[in-house]
Specification:
This protein is α+β, with helices and mostly antiparallel strands. Helix content is 25%, strand content 30%. Helix 3 packs antiparallel against helix 4.
Length: 178
């Protein structure tokens, strides 16, 4: 774990890797994803590291809907998970996110996959994300930008091998960090 000075008294806070999965299948999804990445990247105390390419992915679940555009963003932060969640919720709301149908279509969905090695299990947030290891639309883009990454100690390469790449197609679209 790396530390950073945060005040003149020499108090230290840990820097954690944070992984976000972003998806959209309502509206101008590419414009929405670019806006969301920009807002995340300009969050104070959140330093963007990389953003994956854009993937067109089959929807998961029982709800009939359009394919999703998905990507993963990796950053470093000294923020607490609750603060990150508040920021994610505000960004989703700014892009018109509604929660009318569980697993249904949405303008923007941002999942916090992990914050360092932190574990958390509250009604608002579970870390690491409890379904991430089963979701190719998270693992494949994440592996693209973090080939030595792991989720709860399991290498991404192993997780992708287990779930496969079916239903996850890389596009030529590019979302850029500001």
């Amino acid at each position: 774990m790396t530390f950073i000075d945060v005040d003149t008294l020499g108090n230290l806070r840990p820097i954690n890797k944070v992984v976000f999965s972003l998806g959209s299948n309502v509206g101008d999804s590419l414009e929405i994803l670019q806006g969301a990445v920009t807002q995340l990247a300009t969050t104070p105390d959140l330093i963007p590291v990389d953003v994956s390419g854009v993937y067109l992915t089959d929807p998961v679940g029982e709800v009939e809907q359009e394919d999703f555009y998905n990507l993963v963003m990796v950053a470093e932060t000294t923020l607490e998970p609750a603060t990150i969640l508040d920021r994610v919720d505000a960004i989703e709301q700014a892009f018109g996110r509604t929660r009318d149908v569980k697993g249904g279509p949405r303008t923007l969905d941002i999942d916090i996959i992990m914050v360092g090695k932190r574990e958390r299990d509250t009604p608002e947030l579970t870390l690491p994300h409890p379904e991430a290891q089963n979701r190719a639309f998270v693992l494949v883009p994440w592996l693209e930008i973090d080939p030595k990454g792991d989720l709860a100690g399991v290498p991404l390469t192993e997780l992708v091998e287990k779930v496969g790449r079916e239903g996850v197609r890389r596009t030529d679209e590019v979302i850029e960090l500001p």
